[in-house]
Design goal:
CATH superfamily of the largest domain: Periplasmic binding protein-like II
Oligomer: single chain
CATH class of the largest domain: Alpha Beta
Structural class: alpha/beta
CATH architecture of the largest domain: 3-Layer(aba) Sandwich
CATH topology of the largest domain: D-Maltodextrin-Binding Protein, domain 2
Order of helices and strands: EEHEEHEEEHEHEHEEHHHHEHHH
Shape: globular
Mean pLDDT: 90
C-alpha cells in the first residue's frame, strides 16, 4: 500500500501548546503550503488546553492517537480500501493545478506536449493532473510523452540542480507540474517570454481535505475537539481569503523545514499563485465525482489488486456532520 511519508516520528516533529494530556492531535506535512492554516489555527484560534501537531502523514492505524489528518484527497483514496472507517470532514483549500512549459521547445498549445519530457511528483496529485490533462485536453496517450519523476521541489530562486525549475531551465525536461509554489517558480526561471502555463480546473483541481475515523467521531470527547477545531479553522480561512498578506511571512516560515526546498517562498511568489487557491471549509459539491474518477487512476497507476471504489463507497467516506455542527455553533 502506498505510504506517503514516514511512520516514525522524531521529537523535533512535534510541538505541544501546554504540558499534560493532549486534547487534539493533527497530522500533516507542514512543508506544503496547504498545511499552513492548520498550524496557524492551532497557534491563534484553537481554544484548547493542549494539542499536538505531527509533521508527517502516517497511514491510518499507524498512530491511534491521531484525531485529524490533512492532505490531498488522493491520500484518502490510497488508504480507504484498507481503512473504510476514514471520514472526510472538510476542505482546507482547493488548489488549481498548472503545468508550466518552455515555449522555446515549440510548446504553444496543449497538443505540442506530444513527444515531450514532463516532470511530475510521482503517485500523487501532480502526476494525476498531468495524466488527466494530457489525456483529456491534449488528446495524447501514454506512449506519446515521457514522465520524469526524480526532480525536487523549489519554493524560491535560485533553485538547485535537482529541482524541477532547474531541469526545465536547462532543457532536461520540457514541462512540469508540481505543488505550488514550485510551478510558479518554474515560470520565473524561464522568464515571462519563454514560459507558458496550462490549466483546466474542470478536469481536476487539488482538494486538500481534513479527515478522521468513525471511531473518533463516535467518541464524544474527540468529536467535540474536532468540531472546535473546525470552528477555529474558519477564522483562519477568513484571514487567508481576505487579508492573506498578513500571514504570508508566517506561511513562508512554517514551510521552511524541508531539505527539498532551496529557499523560502517570497511574498512576491505567494502573491502570484494565491489567486489559484480557494480557502474554505465547505466540501466541494463535486468531491464524490472527482474522487470516483481519480480512484480509477490510483488502481491503474499502482497495479493494485482491487477494483475502483464505487460511488457509494466513496460517498460513505464523507461526513459533513461535524462541519454542520461547527457552522451551527458559529451562528
Amino acid at each position: 500500500m502506498f505510504q506517503t511519508l514516514i511512520h516514525f516520528l522524531l521529537p523535533s516533529l512535534l510541538f505541544t501548546r501546554l504540558p499534560g494530556v493532549t486534547a487534539l492531535t493533527i497530522a500533516a506535512s507542514r512543508t506544503n503550503i496547504e498545511a499552513t492554516p492548520l498550524v496557524i489555527t492551532l497557534e491563534d484560534h484553537y481554544n484548547s488546553t493542549s494539542y499536538t501537531f505531527i509533521n508527517a502523514l502516517p497511514a491510518p492505524g499507524a498512530n491511534p492517537g491521531i484525531d485529524l489528518w490533512a492532505g490531498a484527497e488522493v491520500h484518502v483514496l490510497h488508504s480507504a480500501p484498507e481503512h473504510p472507517d476514514i471520514r472526510i470532514l472538510a476542505t482546507v483549500v482547493e488548489f488549481s493545478y498548472r503545468m508550466v512549459a518552455d515555449k522555446r521547445k515549440g510548446i504553444l498549445k496543449p497538443s505540442d506536449l506530444r513527444g515531450k519530457r514532463i516532470g511530475v511528483v510521482p503517485n500523487v496529485t501532480s502526476e494525476y493532473f498531468a495524466y488527466r490533462y494530457l489525456r483529456d485536453v491534449a488528446g495524447l496517450n501514454e506512449s506519446e510523452y515521457t514522465f520524469v519523476k526524480n526532480g525536487a521541489l523549489c519554493y524560491a530562486l535560485p533553485c538547485g540542480n535537482v529541482t524541477y525549475p532547474h531541469l526545465l531551465a536547462t532543457g532536461e525536461i520540457d514541462a512540469f507540474t508540481a505543488f505550488e509554489p514550485t510551478t510558479t517558480v518554474g515560470g520565473l526561471t524561464l522568464g515571462e517570454e519563454n514560459a507558458i502555463f496550462f490549466r483546466n480546473d474542470s478536469i481536476y483541481r487539488k482538494l486538500n481535505v481534513l479527515w478522521t475515523t468513525q471511531a473518533k467521531l463516535d467518541n464524544a470527547t474527540s468529536r467535540a475537539e474536532i468540531v472546535g477545531f473546525l470552528r477555529a479553522l474558519g477564522k483562519t480561512h477568513e484571514v487567508f481569503t481576505k487579508t492573506p498578506e498578513k500571514v504570508w511571512p508566517r506561511v513562508a516560515n512554517i514551510t521552511a523545514t524541508s531539505d527539498a526546498m532551496v529557499n523560502v517562498a517570497t511574498e512576491e511568489i505567494m502573491r502570484t499563485f494565491w489567486p489559484f487557491t480557494k480557502w474554505a471549509r465547505g466540501l466541494a459539491a463535486d468531491i464524490v465525482d472527482l474522487m470516483v474518477e481519480e480512484d480509477k487512476w490510483v488502481v491503474m497507476n499502482e497495479n493494485q489488486d482491487r477494483s475502483p471504489m464505487s460511488r457509494e463507497m466513496v460517498r460513505s467516506l464523507i461526513d459533513d456532520g461535524p462541519l454542520r455542527e461547527a457552522l451551527a455553533l458559529d451562528g
